[in-house]
Design brief:
Strand content: 5-15%
CATH topology of one domain: Isoleucyl-tRNA Synthetase, Domain 1
Radius of gyration: 29 Å
Mean pLDDT: 92
Shape: globular
Distance between the termini: 35 Å
CATH class of one domain: Mainly Alpha
Helix content: 40-55%
Low-confidence stretches: none
């Protein structure tokens, strides 16, 4: 796949500088890294003169002037100047605009795509909520980030598996089962909402009553395969997951496969993993002392222990308890051995949902079904709350202890910060999530969108509802994606339902406004543009369009969907300035009209493609 226009020009500039320097310096390393976009001193600038000046103890201005004087005939570069120690490159506006716009229109959706991940595979683990409550806005952040990341990796040529790990064993599920058996088993609303509210009631009951012994006995039964209680937990969890996926469908989020914790236990993945782990000197089963009969990791025996573990006082980390039950980290190690194809895949799969938002089925591990090809990937990205950073670090450390640095280096914990609401954090036990569910949010956003749209279109009720839903989703997704993952979010309804300024709906409006210009022009054939003159506002759009593919690659490489929202912000702002100052359909000549319509079409297609990457559907009329 060819380089983007932006990268192609940058590469030509780097090659020209390198060739020029060969005759004056002993080495020309770091040339490409010295080149970046410039503001006010050309379109690109290189700082290479500063490095050479330090080495030769000369004035950077003199070095820059010498380099600039020797640079001639660079494609798409009109002139080269030197100022302030920088070598500045002024692009040939007509030539660069022609190349960029025609390339964008010719490649269509491929203009944003790359083959940087060709031949590589990645499994993105996201959502992974406990199946005893609905998604609250914190879970929604996870889901939206995961969906956007999967889209980005797909656009960069990776084979992507979208996976949901379901923790259906453990204390929370046992408590929910107790409530189902003792308090109520008659849902009167959407099942996940009902179950979450019942879970709050259970915890209030526990504050006034001692049921520890009951829960302990119930836990024993749940952990035994084939018991009634184990089956009931799974049934409750599946009903909750089905309800959660109704929410996912409302947000147009789809996945490939669900892996259940109970199925990991049933498939004896932990036993298989232990067979590999205990070959390491750092991991062993203790035969005496405080940790007798436990499988532990001895940090003092891990070669090249990462710095984050050097000051840890507790040097022995338990992976399997003395009663033979594996803890969370051990199950996660086994799970990741499956992910990377280190242990045999004996899972059986069946269809959980026949048709998701993307039209594809969702599969689940199960006690019955058929073998399918999931896992055995080359990279794993886990979207997990930043508060789980230590277990994720332990996961990677286990692979390093085995001498599998390649696996450890292929696991990325994308730690996202928590979402808080006024008055505190979101708690499943306390019920502070009530009123802040993902279902509540989309309902509020749709109501606001209906009011915003009003009667401006002569459309039927069904179409009105469709547009309101798309506008509502755009507001929510753009707001959540616009904040970098590591930053905490203080949720407010006003921010989440932002329909003004540069927002998701505003970007949809940019797309719709561009569509209206194209339709009004009546032009169907937009290829073959040849720009003769380009205004400042036109060229600002061209330069932004030229780097579209680079933005997608950067967002994927750095796992930052907010790079897409930042770019959309720039595109929408540039188009607004262009729209206000540059007549399109009333340009001086027919050729100018055709060129400007082509530029608008290229921008529209790019805005549409970028919106889809973060899960927002463009709208042609707003």
């Amino acid at each position: 796949m060819p380089l983007s226009p932006f990268s192609a020009v940058k590469a030509d500039i780097a090659e020209a500088i390198g060739a020029e320097l060969k005759s004056t310096v002993h080495h020309a390393s770091g040339v490409a890294e010295s080149i970046d976009r410039s503001k006010g001193f050309g379109d690109f600038s290189s700082s290479i003169a500063f490095r050479i000046a330090r080495e030769q103890k000369r004035n950077p201005n003199d070095v820059a002037a010498e380099i600039a004087s020797g640079l001639k005939g660079i494609r798409n570069v009109e002139r080269v100047t030197a100022e302030g120690g920088f070598v500045n490159f002024h692009l040939d506006r007509p030539a660069f605009s022609t190349m960029t716009v025609n390339g964008a229109l010719k490649e269509g959706g491929g203009f944003l795509k790359s083959d940087s991940g060709k031949g590589k595979s990645v499994m993105i683990e996201y959502i992974s909520t406990n199946p005893n409550k609905p998604w609250h806005i914190g879970h929604l952040r996870n889901a939206l980030l995961g969906d956007a990341l999967a889209n980005l990796y797909d656009a960069c040529g990776y084979k992507v598996e979208r996976e949901n790990y379901v923790e259906d064993l453990g204390l929370q599920m046992v408590e929910s089962l107790w409530g189902y058996l003792k308090l109520s088993n008659k849902p009167d609303k959407k099942f996940d909402q009902w179950l979450g509210e019942e879970y709050v009631k259970v915890n209030r009951h526990m504050q006034a009553n001692d049921i520890k012994e009951e829960l302990s006995k119930l836990m024993e039964l749940v952990e035994q395969d084939g018991t009634y209680e184990r089956k009931m937990v799974r049934d409750i969890a599946e009903m909750c997951e089905s309800a959660q996926y109704e929410t996912a469908r409302n947000y147009n989020i789809s996945q490939d496969v669900m892996i259940w914790e109970s199925d990991i236990v049933r498939a004896r993945l932990v036993d298989k993993a232990l067979g590999l782990l205990t070959r390491s000197d750092a991991i062993r089963k203790e035969t005496s002392g405080e940790y007798r009969d436990c499988v532990v990791m001895d940090l003092d025996r891990v070669k090249e222990l990462p710095k984050e573990f050097e000051g840890v006082k507790e040097r022995i980390k338990v992976l399997v308890r003395s009663n033979g039950t594996a803890n969370y980290v051990m199950k996660d190690i086994a799970f990741h051995m499956w992910k990377f194809g280190m242990v045999e895949d004996t899972f059986l799969y069946r269809t959980f949902i026949d048709r998701q938002a993307d039209g594809k089925p969702l599969y689940t591990t199960s006690g019955e079904g058929k073998r399918m090809k999931f896992g055995s990937i080359g990279r794993a990205i886990n979207l997990i709350d930043a508060r789980q950073s230590h277990p994720q670090a332990m996961l990677k450390l286990a692979f390093r202890a085995m001498g599998r640095d390649d696996i450890a280096d292929s696991i990325t914990h994308l730690a996202y910060a928590k979402v808080d609401v006024a008055g505190g954090s979101l708690s499943g036990r306390k019920g502070t999530w009530i009123g802040y569910s993902a279902d509540d949010l989309i309902a509020e956003a749709e109501a606001k969108a209906r009011t915003l749209i009003g009667d401006r279109f002569k459309i039927d009720r069904e179409e009105h509802e469709r547009i309101a839903r798309l506008v509502a989703l755009a507001a929510i997704k753009f707001e959540f994606m616009g904040i970098s993952p590591e930053k905490e979010i203080m949720f407010t309804w006003d921010r989440a339902l932002n329909f003004s300024g540069v927002s998701g709906p505003y970007c949809q409006y940019t797309y719709a406004r561009a569509t209206r210009i194209i339709e009004s022009s009546g032009m169907k054939h937009r290829l073959g543009s040849e720009f003769a003159k380009v205004s400042d506002h036109e060229f600002e759009m061209v330069k932004l369009l030229s780097m579209a593919r680079d933005v997608v690659q950067k967002a994927c490489r750095e796992n930052r969907p907010n790079a897409i929202t930042d770019y959309l912000d720039s595109l929408a702002t540039a188009f607004s300035a262009f729209y206000e100052t540059t007549p399109v359909l009333k340009a001086e000549s027919e050729k100018d009209v055709a060129n400007r319509v082509a530029l608008v079409a290229a921008l529209r297609d790019t805005v549409g493609g970028m919106l889809r990457l973060i899960g927002i559907e463009p709208i042609e009329r707003m």
